[in-house]
Design goal:
Two copies of one chain form a homodimer. Chain A is an alpha+beta fold. The longest helix of chain A has 18 residues. The N and C termini of chain A lie far apart (32 Å). At the A-B interface, β3, β4, β5 and β6 of A face β3, β4, β5 and β6 of B.
Chain lengths: 131, 131
Amino acid sequence: MTAEERDVLDANAAFYAVFARRDADAMDALWAREAEVACLHPGWEPLLGREAVVASWRRIILGGGAPPGIRCERARAHVRGDLAWVVCAEVVPGGALAATNVFARENGAWKLVHHHASPMPQPRADGTLPN
Amino acid sequence: MTAEERDVLDANAAFYAVFARRDADAMDALWAREAEVACLHPGWEPLLGREAVVASWRRIILGGGAPPGIRCERARAHVRGDLAWVVCAEVVPGGALAATNVFARENGAWKLVHHHASPMPQPRADGTLPN
């Protein structure tokens, strides 16, 4: 793993730490200010633009919609220049989601520009996938 | 819109055109060969690596799993250097999905490195969102 990939994984871990501790101001600070941002929450219409995205996180975090104890597993980072993307699993009570997180480097720090999360299948008893 | 954003949107449109005409070989050719790739099909476990991703598309396309008449709407491209990401809606019979597509430039051409699709909510009669 390169140092840059580690930095991106640190930014990705910070996102889940902030979500888990329900800190709406810290969540705001994690999102890019120069690049355009977007967010696809599970089952929502796509949100475009910083204002709509940060407002949605405030609503989720302050409205009690943050799943207790959310944590990130199996994160893989891919960096090219000042843009990076991560695929990971979000473990929540009773199941897991799959997530894509995109980061852009702004003033030397990796900032979120896009988050997309969606349900993962429940594992079957025999370990096979539903599809 | 910049010329680069237009090029990325053309690559994104080509992806949906190939999916709609169910051309498994053309789908293979759209995916990056140098960069690592991943894919999050709706309700599947994450797929990592070119072999697994291209095999999944062959299985979907040749196995009759391609939704008839799929088309892309409201695509927005964001480019930084040799990496780009797109958010769009995938219109399929009876509903729509939200998609994130990530592209990397290889030998001057934008190639898919990641696709993540998940169901969008059905609009309510009063136009409000379920969340």
